[in-house]
Amino acid sequence: MTLQTTSEPRSPVYFDRMIDAFHAGTTGRHAHLGHWNLRDDGTADDYGTEDPNAFARAQSRLNSEVIRMASVAPGTRILDVACGFGGLIQTLDELLTNADLTGINIDIRQLEICQRLPSVNDNALRWQEADACDLPFADATFDTLFCIEAMFHFASRDQFLAETRRVLKPGGVLVLTDVVLLQDDRMPSFCFDAILNDGYGPWPDPWCESGDATTLLKSSGNWTDIARIDATQNTLPSYGYIAPQHVRDHHAPNDVAARSALLLQWLHTNQLLRYEYVSATVGAKS
Fold this sequence. Notes:
Elements: E1 2-4, H1 14-24, H2 54-70, E2 77-81, H3 87-95, E3 100-105, H4 108-115, E4 124-129, E5 142-147, H5 157-167, E6 168-181, H6 189-200, H7 213-220, E7 223-230, H8 232-235, H9 239-242, H10 245-251, H11 256-269, E8 273-282
Parallel strand pairs: 1-4, 2-3, 2-5, 3-4, 5-6
Antiparallel strand pairs: 6-8, 7-8
Helix pairs in contact: 2-3, 6-11
């Protein structure tokens, strides 16, 4: 298990609180909304704020969903971009053997948490500080690349996808989750921008003016087997955990992260936020 560092850390504001929570033992290694199975009436199975493990199960379920889309196999090289606290790599390590699993992040604090994660299957675990839009790897290095709930933080979706194609082998698979916001006349877009960037920034292109992930993948002409799954309703229940009632009632006015979480919940609930799972395969190199 190795850790390499190259640059000064920069991280979304909300990770300050998450890092403190991890060290306090009040949150685990997953750093995303999670996936809830829905009943026929649209309500979420296994949901309930009284169950302390329900959210963690939903987060593990999202990992299972994206791994299924990637069809990962033993003996492969996998890159997790913006790896958080290493939750996805931990899951992959439990599933695979003879695999080379690399996680990158721009925040050394998160990588230090990842470095404490031992392999349970003798896979190679590597951790490196890096910018998602300037990946420090040779062309055609990886078989699979994941990016979970992070691409909207990057300086350029387009540049990240170009880097992804470069470091994946021909036939390599990309699986990511994308958050797509939709314009609404009820509030000027600059108000949304300010609140989101206060608590969830950097978020340089919240309205996907350069294109969402699926649009960019299709327009580049370099990808095949592009698939998109709308997981908007499957991720919505998680606000009961990241913005619970006591936060809404007491803390939001003076808490930038809480304000941003409440705005995201409002957008999500009012169908102005789409949460998508996207997969694609690298075509032949030109």
